[in-house]
Amino acid sequence: MAKLIILGAGESGVGAALLGKQQGYEVFVSDGGPIKDIYKHELTAHAIEFEESQHSWERILAADEIVKSPGIPEKSEVMKKIRATNISVISEIELAWRYSKDAKIIAITGSNGKSTTTALTYHIFHNAGLPVAMVGNIGISYAKQVATDPQEYYVIEISSFQLDDIKDFRPHVAILLNITPDHLDRYNYKMEHYVASKFRIAMNQVAGDYFIYCKDDPEIMNYLKNHSIHSTLIPFTIMEPLKEGGSMTNDQINITVNGDTEIVSMYDLALKGKHNIYNSMAAGIAGRTMNIRKEKIRESLASFKSLEHRMEFVATVRGVDFINDSKATNVNSVWFALESIENRPIILIMGGVDKGNDYSAIRELVKERVKAIICLGVDNQPIQDALGKEVATMISTSSMEDAVKAAFQQSNKGDVVLLSPACASFDLFKNYEDRGRKFKEVVREL
């Protein structure tokens, strides 16, 4: 019986363990930190051995194959020891794909908009009556879905970390939304390494597959100039008309696949803002590659409800709107958030664990649209240094209660208080969901 070691017992690790057990592997789960009770119960219920807050080296290094959690960096002690051996290391995405090759896979990556586009694509497929699951970085893990409730279609949100450890994973449709600096600490601060990681989504594709990409993204276009993709390329753009792909004329979105065009009015889209035109185009093209009827796509693009923690309206308090964009963990996401709020003064709550952010990308928009910045985090200095001169008021806080109260004090009727942190959340919160929920709780108590 082949020995499968799972490193990390989060959603993806536990999903990989369930699938490994189901497929007849001898499975052992090892996590260097504590394991959440919910996952411990799941592993115990399936009689899967595990350890927490330690690594049993002898057992790990006797593995036939290792599934690595996307959260474990290559420079960690555990990965250095494993890389010194010849043991195969794969991601949970790779393991899940092995046992779902007959399904149609629609995989979505990009620095920003992944979750929204994944949820929107799933909404289109689900509305069309197809047997589809939404998995990956959103919802349950791909491996757990394959193990417990296999489907004919999978719409998968995939991060660069998950792509780093694929070998044969091949999506029928790959979507690359954009590439902006993010997680560079994991890529030796080299943008070209991060770009190459994102493009791994298409590395095993063949002629009958589709690669859907943003023609307006300079990093994507630069890479395509120097590298070949073997699948059918379908671009989308808002800058010029296209014979094939997604484009705009006046206020209409045109989605053309195999010469057949679907037209959707920009005003009918459920999601507003320029970035969501891109997301809607990408999802619409994915639907057309799978021959989903045009009216179903049009109807789905109009009826979609946005995600929790992504430009989520929370409440209006004394004429001030509060918006939760806790999922904005990089500077570019904040740019999109600011860009989508027009003609209203913004009080911006931002800060957290800085991943080496370059705030210059949002300087102009901050100057133009933000009247106050409320810093929320353990180290707010980088934000103060970069954006202090662009706003009349900057206040440092170290709890969500203080941040929301300070923002409310700075606001007037008609203003928007926007939580869009640009940073990871691990200094004060468990994750971005915890941060977003705390924001909503405090706002509702005002």
UniProtKB/TrEMBL annotation:
Q: What class of enzyme is it?
A: ligase
Entry keyword set: ATP-binding, Cell cycle, Cell division, Cell shape, Cell wall biogenesis/degradation, Cytoplasm, Ligase, Nucleotide-binding, Peptidoglycan synthesis
Domain (Mur ligase central): residue spans on this chain: 108-286
Q: What is the catalytic activity of this protein?
A: UDP-N-acetyl-alpha-D-muramoyl-L-alanine + D-glutamate + ATP = UDP-N-acetyl-alpha-D-muramoyl-L-alanyl-D-glutamate + ADP + phosphate + H(+)
Q: Which gene encodes it?
A: murD
Q: What does this protein do?
A: Cell wall formation. Catalyzes the addition of glutamate to the nucleotide precursor UDP-N-acetylmuramoyl-L-alanine (UMA).
Pathway in which the depicted protein is active: Cell wall biogenesis; peptidoglycan biosynthesis
Q: Name one GO molecular function term.
A: UDP-N-acetylmuramoylalanine-D-glutamate ligase activity
Q: Is Cytoplasm set as a keyword in this record?
A: yes
Task: Please identify the protein, giving its name as recorded.
Answer: UDP-N-acetylmuramoylalanine--D-glutamate ligase
| Compartments, as annotated in UniProt | Cytoplasm
